[in-house]
Write a structure and sequence with these properties.
22 helices; six-stranded mixed sheet; 612 residues; Rossmann fold; alpha/beta
């Protein structure tokens, strides 16, 4: 059940108290460790110069043991203090959402914007002030990518299943807090240097590829034979030298020969190690994330599918990644200079570590993309659930599979502050129905269209929508033609770009059982006569297709369509009120055609001469 603000505040006080306690313990442990370090040094000096070295040796041993205990205490206190800080930040964000404060420093996802997408740009899915920015409580690059894919509508589960998953996650506060701690730990492993961070994100994305570059081309049969022959020679040389059977020159000769072998393969091995050296440091944190997800016992069908991916196979997802980390660590030992010129040479450690990594990939490699994809998808869905928990006043849409409908009572734009929203009703209940929305400039037509489009997008994501009540076909999709611009790079005029977009909108009507079509002042790049004729022809086409259409227009003559198709076309309008030189808007949708216009008043108010 939903958690109220008072409960969150009580939890926040508890977490802050816990944070302060562990911070004090961390400081005390640090002070004690420093004191014991100096005492150990003094004891060592005294033991070396004293007539009674035995007593001082006892003190030295005791102080070193105490130092080890103090260091362990400090490490534990630091780890718990950091976890408490993550919890405090997470609860502060949850309270901020309940208070309608979404300026949480989250990424805006501008890099995911696509002009060719059927609705992303027009509905502000990405960029500053976007839906992505509002819901992006993610910490990993894979989570951000997965969230962007969900918002674009890629591979969405049925509406009811997604609603059940988001509802279950939004109520699972303990699970989300635990995952927040794991993801924050993973986030803090990120390098601070921008180039290193970019490399880490690129390498992390490679985990979703069927065959990452750093695991390609494993050692072949020839290198495998060389590996075992060289290892045998190195072992015999060491044993022979230690037992004085052979002179040291034999060991030196074998060492030089094996060094030459390593020189031939050091390039491929170095490339593999360098390709994921930064990524390797994140495997432990990823293992913790996967372990927590594996322990989750969801009730929703979608949740069970996600967890099943992590649990199937001979080893769990977390165990698989721990094994990968262990093998990657072995390969990285070559960084140690002493190890590189002794054990690495005499036993061809690089080849053994490389072969071990390749063996792991043969056994588990096919699962890796699925594991990380499932983890990333769950991270994105937890972010959506955190948003859903922060808008308890929003409604859960009702699925209407037997009718091509979209109805919303008290529909508002979800990206506006709650105190500034103005709600309106909308009902499109018949196949081919068209709503012509007229209105003066700045009166709210475009905002109303975007509110309707976002309601459908958010409903398909499983999120609550900014309305008192909402009912829609569970497979309702969206296409838009609202913010089309000319393109110098493509050599396309605005009219051509808009015409191309409209053709694409009509084509997409065949890809879904029913589609919400949002058109805002279309075909403005041509003369008024052809614009009216083309718009009228397009709307006549839409009345015969599986579409529900909202059209914002200044072309009042299009209202004639309501007379020609009274059962399918209706007209509404937004208006303004003139108070001296000031225009006041109430953003209320009213039935009928707009009785007045305000273009001249707007231009006059802005100081354009010649309009007096």
């Amino acid at each position: 059940m939903p958690i109220d603000r008072d409960t969150l505040q009580r939890w926040l006080v508890e977490r802050r108290t816990r944070f302060e306690r562990w911070r004090r313990d961390e400081r005390r442990a640090t002070t004690l460790a420093v004191g014991l370090l100096f005492f150990s040094f003094a004891s060592a000096v005294a033991a070396n110069n004293s007539w009674l070295p035995g007593a001082w040796s006892t003190w030295l041993t005791g102080s070193l043991l105490a130092l080890a205990c103090a260091t362990t205490w400090r490490v534990r206190a630091t780890r718990r203090r950091r976890a408490a800080r993550y919890s405090v930040e997470w609860l502060e964000s949850a309270i901020a959402r309940l208070e309608d404060r979404f300026d949480l420093g989250q990424p805006d996802g501008a890099e995911y914007g696509e002009d060719a997408h059927p609705f992303a740009r027009d509905l502000d899915l990405f960029g500053s002030g976007s839906l992505y920015e509002r819901v992006a409580a993610t910490h990993t690059v894979l989570g951000r990518d997965a969230l962007a894919a969900l918002l674009r509508g890629d591979d969405l589960a049925p509406l009811v299943d997604r609603q059940a998953l988001i509802r279950e996650l939004s109520e699972a506060w303990e699970l989300r807090e635990d995952l927040e701690l794991a993801w924050c730990t993973l986030r803090d492993r990120n390098p601070k240097d921008a180039r290193e961070l970019d490399r880490l994100e690129r390498d992390t994305r490679s985990l979703l590829e069927p065959a990452p570059a750093w695991l390609a081309d494993p050692p072949g049969p020839l290198l495998t034979r060389v590996k075992w022959i060289g290892t045998s020679l190195g072992t015999l040389a060491v044993i022979g030298t230690l037992t004085h059977l052979w002179p040291f020159s034999v060991l030196l000769a074998v060492w030089a020969a094996l060094l030459g072998v390593l020189a031939l393969v050091s390039g491929p091995v170095g490339q593999r190690m360098g390709a994921f050296e930064v990524l390797r440091s994140t495997f432990e944190a990823w293992s913790t994330v996967l372990s927590r997800l594996e322990a989750w016992q969801p009730e929703s069908a979608e949740g069970r599918r996600r967890v099943a991916v992590l649990q199937e196979g001979s080893a769990t997802a977390s165990a698989v990644i721990r094994q990968l980390k262990a093998r990657a660590d072995r390969l990285s030992w070559r960084r140690n200079t002493f190890f590189a010129f002794t054990i690495n040479v005499l036993w061809l450690w690089d080849l053994h570590a490389w072969a071990s990594l390749a063996s792991w990939w043969r056994q588990h490699g096919h699962r890796v993309p699925l594991l990380f994809e499932a983890a990333a998808r769950l991270e994105a869905e937890v972010a959506l659930a955190s948003y859903a928990a922060g808008v308890p006043e929003a409604c859960t849409p009702e699925a209407a599979p037997d009718s091509e409908t979209f109805e919303a009572e008290g529909l508002a734009h979800p990206l506006l502050p709650r105190s500034e929203r103005v709600a309106n009703d909308l009902a499109l209940t018949r196949r081919g129905e068209v709503a012509l929305i007229t209105g003066s400039n700045m009166s709210g037509k475009s905002t109303f269209l975007r509110a309707a489009g976002l309601a459908v997008v958010m409903a398909r994501l499983g999120l609550p929508v900014a309305a008192k009540r909402c009912r829609l076909h569970p497979e309702l999709s969206v296409v838009t033609c609202m913010r089309v611009e000319d393109s110098l790079q493509r050599g396309a005029s605005r009219f051509f770009a808009e015409a191309t977009r409209l053709v694409e909108c009509v084509r997409r009507l065949d890809e879904a059982p029913v589609t919400l079509v949002l058109l805002d002042e279309i075909l403005a790049g041509t003369n008024s006569h052809e614009r009216h004729a083309a718009t009228r022809a397009l709307l006549n086409t839409l009345t015969g297709r599986s579409a529900l259409t909202l059209v914002a227009t200044h072309d009042l003559a299009l209202a004639e369509l309501a007379e020609a198709h009274p059962e399918l076309v209706w007209v509404g309008h937004f208006r303004d009120e003139a108070r001296g030189d000031e225009m006041v808007f109430d953003y209320r949708l009213r039935p009928g055609v707009l009785p007045t216009t305000n273009a001249i008043r707007v231009l006059r108010a802005l100081g354009l001469p010649g309009l007096d």
